[in-house]
Each structure stands twice: as structure tokens, then as C-alpha cells.
Design brief:
Helices cover 62% and strands 4% of the residues. With 678 residues, the chain is mainly alpha-helical.
Length: 678
């Protein structure tokens, strides 16, 4: 009776000492960290427009997260197992929250967002100085004040966002390697795939919530509450629109800090699942084994670091798997980061609409695929060798399906002087005229040379003829009516359509055919995402089972470190620089220097966005074939360790029975024989 009461009291004290409770807390941490990551990537276009920076700088901001990760990744992954892993995860969550808060600060430190336009709210009705006028000097041309330009450039508020993202990367460092190693150490080996599948599902649920949050914030004007939105001459579909990106970062900061609280209550170690309920194991044996394990860890905290590194570098399967991961992530990360920008330019939709569609069609099938993949691995007890073949075949199938995205294409926005002629003819698909210098040689025509238009201002209008013009002045419009985004321009000499030639603010819509192609794009993305997510869990188990147990945490950390250095940092930067080369028209700062791109050559953009990642990913399947060959010949460390452990346990049982003189019954013999076979 006393023993029962003592056991109940012990269970009450160790209510946090359950692997499933740790799994729940870690899943929440995965949701919060992936939520802030997805939100950050979704808001990159808004940040680019807010700070008037090129896409290459945006890639650097995105890569700062990986820089923060790599600063501590290897050492946290190795030394973290020697320290208190749950507390380190909790501290990491707090740092992620602080980083998100720092990223929202520029909104409160800088003035209101001023987009590039020729129309001010006060001049909507009282002045027509922004229209075509033969006897007008270009008074609206920005004065190139060197002091103003220097002040604007030196503000560099985007550095706050980059530093905050770097701190967020530092905070994220311990969550994945220490969390996975903690679960893999104290959970049953057959449950590990399912648990990792649950974590990966949480990792996908976070982006789903993050994308919904980003879609909501992108539809709200950045300075909402401090400006009258009725006076705005832009809409969410305009390339100058900036959503309230700072609101989401404040929400992400709060969620990350709340997710950190449970980890400060978990113990340093747990009993292996299934062992805490067995009373036949002597308590003294457990204590002796625990002391020896702790003693060995203390002596090896620094001495075995280099041997572990050497062992990992000599592990052929592990190193080839790292190479495959680097190539694969080089293709995926760029597609994910610049996907909203690409779809906006390709299909002419608003940022909020595009982000919500990405979450609906892209992330939900990934969540389902992760769960199904982990369940299949557990249910059918698939071996590592079979898992490698499954992962390879499924990934290759998705790779070929990825090329179908090249079929769902739309033409460039028809803009006179850039992608269409003033004779109302669009330039053929895949053929865009070379950029001429100076710009006046492109955008001027007989119908607007008398208007003295500002050649570098981007304030587009859509004419009745379906052609857009860089401004109402370039359309030759002489009159205007209405206010804000509802303004209508009349008597436009360049439009020459039947009746009263008129135009409205904004670019022209791309038409219903383009909307249908967007649906096809997302349908193929849905199928591809599901197939690839099915391959993710089997592929990750190949990584885990190819590493010795004592090297597992360091191996996972080194794997992530290589991905950060060779893919996460350079990929957004070099692809962003390539995307910048496809820009047709740059926005301008107050001092006249170029800012963010307003319009891209979508045909060149498509080739870079699809073919460059496809080429990099294609290279990864060559080393994948070598893994399939090696895995048939070599014995994996996990298999050897399990065999040795079972043999030692069998010998220990025989020795104990010899000393106690206990004779086994036939049922016990059969049970032991069955266990040996398993």
C-alpha cells in the first residue's frame, strides 16, 4: 500500500516527464517558429516596396535568418545534448520573439509610406497639372537635392528587419536538432517516425496560419489609422501597394514567447518510453547505468567532438545525403521565397489573394502527406533500405510534375512603350524589346510628345483599348473626374477608341484565361506538394538511421548547418540578383535614384524562376542513385547498434538466470525465442 502511494506521488511530481507532453510543447514551438518564418517570407514583397530596395537586398534580408542559424548550429547541436535541452529550446523561443519584435520597429521609427505618384489628394479636382499640357514646364520633376538623397539612403531602416531576422535565426537554432534528438532518445524507436511526422505537420500548420495572417495584413494599408484610405490612388493589386506588414510581426513575437513557457518545466532526461512501468528491473541496475552514462557524457563533452566530426565526414551515406539536401533546398527555398512576387507578376493578382491561395493549395496537402508518410513508416515497419527507394521514386515523380508549371503562362501586362506598342499591338509572347536608353526613346510617341510628361514616374492607367500607360500624361489625357482610386481620365489622345477615350487608374487586368491558368498552376502544385511530402519522412529516416546514436544530435545539426551555409544564404541572394535583371521599369526615390522594381518582363522572370531551381534540383538525383547503391551493400549504424543491444540483453538475462537457478517454462522459452527473432 505504501509503495502504491509512493508511486502515485512520484507520477504526480513528474507530470511533465512524459515524452508525449514534450511532443505537444515542441509541436507548439514548431507551429510558432514556422508561422513567423512563413509570415516573414510572405511579407518580403511588402518590405521591398516599403523600403524601396531591389530584390537582391530582399534576398540578403531573407538569408540573414540562415546566418543567425549557422552562427550557433553545430555547437548547439553537439553541446546541447550535454546541457539542459528543454531549457535551451525555451530560451531559443524567447529570442525568436524578440527578433520578431525588432523587425516591426521600423514602422514606428520612420514616417508614413509615400508611394510614387503624380497625383496628390489636394489636386484631384483643383489642379490638372498631372495631365497632358502643351504649355507646361516639368514642375513635378523631383528636385535632386543631395542632402535629401543622402538622408534617405542613410536611414537604412531595412537593417532593423535584417538584424531582427538574424536574431530570429539564432533563436531557432536549438529547437529542431535538440527537440528531435530529445524525442529520438526517449521514445520507442518504432514511434519516432510518427512523432517526427507530427512535428513536421506542426511545421506545416504554422505556415498555413502564417499565410492566412499575411493575407489579412497585406490587404490592410500599411499606415491604416493614420491616413484617410479614401484618398489613396492605389489598390491592393498595384505594385506600389504596401500592406500592414508590421502587425503580423507583433503577433508572431507574442506567440513565440508564449510557446517558450512549458520548456522551462521539463526535466533534463526522461525514462525511455515503456521502461518506467517495468518493475522487474532492479533499481540499483538503473541507477548504475544512469551514473555511467552521465559520467561518460561529462568526460566526453569536448574530447569526442573531433572524433564525432571525423566519423560523420567518413560516413558515405550521410555525406551524400547532405549533398542531396543542399541541392534540393537550393531549388525549393528560392521557389518559396519569391513565389508571391512571381504569381503577382504572372497572373496580376493582389498579394493578399495570392498568399491565401498558396496556403490553401500548397500547405494543406503537405500536412496530410507528412502524417500519412509517418503513419505508413510506423504501420508497416518499413526498413531503411525500402524507405530510401520510396523517397527517391516519389521525389523524382514530383520533380517531373514541377515542369508543368511552365505550361501555365500568361503574357506581360500590356504597357505602351514597354511591352506593347502605341499602335495598340502587344509584343509577341516570349519576345520583349530590349531596354533602350534613355527611357524617353521607348515611352514617348507622336500622341504624347507635346504633353511634356515626366518620363521616370510610375503611375499607370488602363485605357479603354486594353493597353496601360505609365501615367495619365503618357496616355495623352486632358481631363479628370472623381477622387482617389475611382478617378477617371478623359480625352486621351493615345487611346483613340470609339467614343470618349478614357482611362482608369492601375494596370489592365489580364483576363479570365489567365485566372484559369492560375487554377491549373495551383492544382498541379497541390498534387506535387502531396507527393513530395510523402517522400519527406522516409527520406529523413534514412538520414537518422545512417548516423550512430551518439552522433545523432551533431549529425542533424551539421546537416542543417550545411543547408544554411550552402543553400539558405546564397540561394535567395543570387536568384534575387537574377530576378532584378528582368526588371522593365524601376521605381524612383525622392532624389531620383532607382528604388524597387515596378514591373518585370514576366517571360524572362518565368524562365529564371522555374528553370534555374529545376536545374539545381536535377543535379541532386545523381548522388541519390549512389545512396541507393551504397545502402544495399552497407550495414547502417542503427541496425548494428540495435543488434548489439539485443545480444547484450540476451546474455545478461542468461547470466541472471544462471545465478538465481530459475528454470524457464516452455512459454518463457518461446517468448525469448520470438524476441530474439524480432
Amino acid at each position: 500500500m505504501g509503495e502504491t502511494g509512493k508511486r502515485v506521488a512520484t507520477n504526480g511530481k513528474t507530470c511533465f516527464s512524459k515524452i508525449k507532453m514534450f511532443l505537444c510543447a515542441l509541436t507548439v514551438a514548431y507551429v510558432s517558429k514556422s508561422l513567423s518564418g512563413a509570415y516573414m517570407h510572405s511579407m518580403l514583397t511588402q518590405i521591398e516596396r516599403q523600403f524601396n530596395i531591389p530584390t537582391s537586398i530582399v534576398g540578403l534580408i531573407s538569408g540573414s535568418f540562415e546566418i543567425g542559424n549557422l552562427l550557433l548550429m553545430v555547437f548547439v547541436s553537439y553541446f546541447g545534448t550535454k546541457l539542459h535541452r528543454p531549457i535551451m529550446i525555451g530560451v531559443g523561443c524567447v529570442l525568436m520573439g524578440l527578433g520578431c519584435f525588432l523587425m516591426s520597429l521600423p514602422h514606428f521609427l520612420m514616417g508614413r509610406y509615400e508611394y510614387e505618384n503624380t497625383i496628390s489628394p489636394a489636386s484631384n479636382l483643383s489642379s490638372n497639372s498631372f495631365l497632358c499640357s502643351e504649355n507646361r514646364i516639368q514642375t513635378l520633376l523631383p528636385t535632386p537635392d543631395p542632402a535629401e538623397c543622402e538622408k534617405e539612403i542613410k536611414s537604412l531602416m531595412w537593417i532593423y528587419v535584417m538584424v531582427g531576422n538574424l536574431i530570429r535565426g539564432i533563436g531557432e537554432t536549438p529547437i529542431m536538432p535538440l527537440g528531435i534528438s530529445y524525442i529520438d532518445d526517449f521514445a520507442k524507436s518504432e514511434n519516432s517516425p510518427l512523432y517526427i511526422g507530427i512535428l513536421e505537420t506542426g511545421k506545416m500548420l504554422g505556415p498555413l496560419v502564417g499565410l492566412l495572417l499575411a493575407s489579412f495584413c497585406a490587404s490592410i494599408y500599411v499606415d491604416t489609422g493614420s491616413v484617410n484610405t479614401d484618398d489613396l490612388t492605389i489598390t491592393p493589386t498595384d505594385t506600389r501597394w504596401v500592406g500592414a506588414w508590421w502587425i503580423g510581426f507583433l503577433i508572431c513575437a507574442g506567440m513565440n514567447i508564449l510557446a517558450s513557457i512549458p520548456f522551462f518545466f521539463f526535466p533534463k532526461t526522461l525514462s525511455k518510453t515503456g521502461q518506467e512501468d517495468h518493475g522487474d528491473v532492479p533499481k540499483s541496475d538503473k541507477e548504475d547505468k544512469h551514473r555511467e552514462k552521465v559520467k561518460g557524457k561529462k568526460h566526453g563533452i569536448t574530447k569526442d567532438f573531433l572524433p564525432f566530426m571525423k566519423s560523420l565526414f567518413c560516413n558515405q551515406i550521410y555525406m551524400i545525403f547532405v549533398l542531396i539536401s543542399v541541392l534540393q533546398v537550393n531549388g525549393f527555398i528560392t521557389s518559396f521565397i519569391f513565389l508571391p512576387k512571381y504569381l503577382e507578376q504572372q497572373y496580376g493578382k493582389s498579394t493578399g489573394e495570392i498568399i491565401s491561395l498558396i496556403g490553401l493549395y500548397g500547405l494543406i496537402p503537405i500536412c496530410i502527406g507528412y502524417l500519412i508518410g509517418g503513419f505508413i513508416m510506423k504501420k508497416f515497419k518499413i526498413s531503411v533500405k525500402k524507405a530510401a527507394y520510396i523517397a527517391f521514386c516519389l521525389s523524382l515523380t514530383e520533380y517531373f510534375l514541377f515542369f508543368s508549371h511552365y505550361l501555365w503562362t500568361c503574357d506581360n501586362f500590356p504597357v505602351a512603350g514597354l511591352t506593347a506598342s502605341y499602335e495598340h499591338k502587344r509584343y509577341p509572347l516570349y519576345i520583349t524589346p530590349r531596354i533602350q536608353h534613355p527611357l524617353e526613346n521607348q515611352v514617348l510617341s507622336n500622341c504624347n510628345t507635346r504633353c511634356n510628361c515626366l518620363t521616370k514616374v510610375w503611375d499607370p492607367v488602363c485605357g479603354d483599348n486594353g493597353i496601360a500607360y505609365m501615367s495619365a500624361c503618357f496616355a495623352g489625357c486632358e481631363k479628370s473626374a472623381g477622387t482617389g482610386s475611382n478617378m477617371v481620365f478623359q480625352n486621351c489622345s493615345c487611346i483613340r477608341s470609339s467614343g470618349n477615350s478614357s482611362a482608369v487608374l492601375g494596370l489592365c487586368n489580364k483576363g479570365p484565361d489567365c485566372t484559369i491558368k492560375l487554377q491549373y498552376f495551383f492544382i498541379t502544385s497541390l498534387i506535387g506538394s502531396f507527393i513530395y511530402s510523402l517522400a519527406a519522412i522516409p527520406g529523413y529516416m534514412v538520414l537518422l538511421r545512417s548516423i550512430k546514436p551518439e552522433e545523432k544530435s551533431l549529425g542533424v545539426g551539421l546537416h542543417t548547418f550545411c543547408i544554411r551555409v550552402l543553400a539558405g544564404i546564397p540561394a535567395p541572394i543570387y536568384l534575387g540578383a537574377l530576378i532584378d535583371r528582368t526588371c522593365l521599369h524601376w521605381g524612383n526615390l525622392k532624389c531620383g535614384k532607382p528604388g524597387a522594381c515596378r514591373m518585370y518582363d514576366i517571360n524572362k522572370f518565368r524562365r529564371i524562376f522555374i528553370l534555374v531551381p529545376a536545374a539545381v534540383r536535377g543535379l541532386s538525383y545523381l548522388p541519390a542513385i549512389f545512396i541507393l547503391i551504397l545502402i544495399r551493400k552497407l550495414h547502417l549504424p542503427e541496425e548494428m547498434v540495435c543488434s548489439e543491444a539485443e545480444l547484450a540483453e540476451m546474455k545478461l538475462t542468461e547470466k541472471e538466470n544462471e545465478y538465481t537457478g530459475v528454470h524457464r517454462s516452455p512459454e518463457a522459452e518461446n517468448g525469448r525465442e520470438l524476441k530474439t527473432k524480432l
